[in-house]
Design brief:
Length: 224
């Protein structure tokens, strides 16, 4: 049996809602709504749209923005249990997120996830406006201008050696869903999987994911 590896989105997946949209809606800088619409519709790239959204916010509001996310974001039920399940069964778990380090890292700090297994965008507050930094860009096989390129990370785990599993909900997961063996999907990602004819399992909480993972692992072991 190939070793499972999980690539898990953050905004709207680990957390119950999309934190970037929540930030923009709460602080309401002029011009953010068209940028969100253009990213969702594919008119502009994720990197372009997210970078321009955060440039609408002054750097001096860093702590205020981070505090807002920390106080309002909710971790989806079953997340600690999923991490424990992965540890118990030697399943590699990676956070692959289009989110930003300054609000993502504090939310994940209570959980035992190694730093080198958390992939997200970075931030620079040295200028007047918040600048997003992109430490995980697209490789030569991706031209989507993702910002944090999930398919680049996925390709580091060869399909002949790993059962590649993606957990996600929205536009940043669309390309990755087309590469992996199994998708656990919510929200817009369900629509995309239906549209593309991709096999997926819908989920509401991570308890659903653990239950299904256990079922397929038990089935694989019984066939060996």
């Amino acid at each position: 049996m190939k070793r499972p590896v999980l690539f898990c989105d953050f905004d709207g997946t680990i957390t119950e809602s999309d934190n970037i949209v929540a930030i923009m809606r709460h602080f309401d800088p002029p011009g953010w709504k068209p940028l969100v619409d253009q990213v969702v519709s594919g008119q502009i790239s994720i990197r372009n749209g997210v970078g321009r959204m955060f440039e609408l916010l002054p750097s001096e509001r860093r702590e205020e923005v981070a505090r807002f996310v920390f106080d309002t974001a909710r971790i989806r039920a079953g997340f600690p249990e999923l991490l424990q399940y992965c540890r118990d069964r030697d399943i590699e778990f990676l956070v692959t997120s289009g989110g930003i380090d300054f609000f993502l890292q504090p939310l994940l700090e209570p959980f035992p996830i190694p730093q080198d297994r958390i992939y997200c965008n970075a931030s620079d507050f040295s200028g007047e406006r918040i600048r997003i930094v992109w430490p995980h860009p697209c490789d030569e096989h991706c031209s989507n201008d993702c910002g944090m390129c999930k398919t680049t990370v996925i390709r580091r785990y060869p399909q002949d050696s790993y059962m590649r599993i993606l957990i996600g909900d929205s536009v940043t997961d669309f390309a990755g869903a087309q590469l992996v063996d199994l998708v656990y999907a919510r929200s817009h990602l369900i629509d995309k999987c239906e549209q593309l004819g991709l096999p997926y399992v819908p989920f509401d909480t991570f308890h659903d994911v653990v239950q299904h993972l256990h079922t397929i692992q038990e089935g694989a072991q019984s066939r060996e």
